[in-house]
Automatic annotation (TrEMBL):
Compartments, as annotated in UniProt: Membrane
Protein's UniProt keywords contain Acetylation: no
Transmembrane segments: 47-69, 81-100, 112-131, 143-167, 179-197, 217-236, 248-271, 283-299, 305-323
Record protein name field: EamA domain-containing protein
Region span, Disordered: 330-354
Chief site of localization: membrane
Highest taxon, organism lineage: Eukaryota
Upper classification of the organism: Eukaryota, Viridiplantae, Streptophyta, Embryophyta, Tracheophyta
Keyword annotations of the record: Membrane, Transmembrane, Transmembrane helix
Membrane topology, from the record: Multi-pass membrane protein
Keyword Hydrolase set for record: no
Length: 354
């Protein structure tokens, strides 16, 4: 008599097959988020609007929606040990949004999006402070590869007008006005480090997904409150210095609010909890890279595919080495919290202070 076990296994399917819909959702969510980034960049570059004021106008409805969806005042009361770090994390989040927005406006979407992955340097810091010598050198090598990738990006390798292949083949002149230099990349790189830091703090405060969502609502609301005086100051200075009214782009605001702040939070949670994919990982970079290529072509940007691929490969290799852990030990322990990623395991192993 045939055992029913093979039938149940066939019905259940392989784990990879069951994760396929989640992977599709992850790709679509990241595509929409990157689309909102390009919409935001076009609006800021064409109108010259204040970055802080734009982000504040996007965070106000986002914080209201987060609070209405998560209702942190209901359910089990939150302790001060959870609320206070979330409020502090709101300050870091507000600073991240300001720096990243300014980096987007000055450096362009490709450099700003790839610079978000600079948070992997926190893994290097953890290894230098608490890691073994062999692991330190591996992570330092990853850091060097990341710095090389950011240097090539700052020199315009991802732009057709500045790509070495474009210049050698067509014998074109270098347009030095598009060359930024590493000092101009400091702002988006520092924003990427702050982004990784706020993710680490959120994981340390709460290990449960539902509690993390409630605390994230408090974090976004706190970031909105801290941005309020800065945004009002920009509004006052801007209105006094210029009487020209800036055009309003509903799509730029809606896409940034819905896709860039709201949707991407839930997408990242799905990726971490179900797909075991963290933000600062080569897999996430591969998804973002594909979305960037599509948007660069759609928006008809100054884009060099070979130069972008070279920079992305260097960055992916650097992230892989910089975030490398003792994988054999992690696999043997089968830690369910391994999806916390980049620094989650390192913080548990080395207790890096946050």
């Amino acid at each position: 008599m045939m055992s029913p076990r093979p039938i149940s296994e066939d019905r259940g399917g392989s784990p990879h097959f069951r994760q396929t819909p989640l992977q599709i959702i992850h790709v679509i969510g990241n595509f929409l988020r990157i689309w909102s980034v390009y919409s935001m960049y076009r609006y800021l570059s064409q109108t010259g609007a204040s970055v802080t004021l734009f982000i504040f106008c996007c965070l106000v409805p986002s914080s209201i929606l987060f609070l209405l969806l998560q209702k942190p005042w209901k359910g089990r009361a939150l302790s001060n040990q959870q609320v206070v770090p979330s409020v502090i994390n709101g300050v870091i989040t507000a600073l991240y949004f300001i720096l990243w927005g300014k980096g987007l406006k000055s450096c362009g979407p490709v450099r700003a999006i790839l610079a978000e992955y600079s948070g992997a340097v926190l893994g290097v810091l953890s290894a230098v402070l608490y890691g073994r010598r062999g692991l330190v050198w591996k992570k330092v090598g990853g850091l060097i590869a990341m710095l090389a990738s950011f240097y090539f990006l700052s020199q315009g390798w991802a732009m057709a007008s500045l790509s070495p292949i474009y210049i050698l083949v067509l014998d074109a002149e270098v347009q030095t006005e598009h060359v930024l230099g590493m000092k101009d990349m400091v702002i988006p790189i520092f924003a990427g480090i702050l982004s990784a830091l706020r993710r680490v703090i959120a994981r340390r405060v709460s290990l449960k997904n539902q509690l993390k969502r409630r605390l994230h609502a408090i974090t976004i609301a706190s970031a909105t409150c801290f941005l309020f005086p800065v945004a009002m100051w920009d509004l006052i200075i801007g209105s006094s210095s210029s009487s020209v009214e800036l055009p309003f782009s509903a799509w730029a605001f809606l896409s940034t609010t819905l896709f860039g702040v709201l949707l991407i939070f839930f997408i990242d949670n799905i990726a971490e909890e179900r797909l075991h994919m963290v933000f600062s990982s080569p897999r996430h970079l591969m998804v973002a890279g594909g979305c960037i290529i599509v948007m660069e072509i759609v928006y008809k940007m100054d884009f060099s595919l070979p130069g972008f691929v070279i920079c992305s490969l260097l960055l992916g290799f650097g992230i892989y080495e910089a975030t490398s852990l003792e994988r054999t030990r992690k696999d043997s322990l089968q830690n369910p919290d391994q999806s916390n990623g980049m620094l989650g395991d390192e913080l548990q192993m080395s207790s890096l202070p946050t």
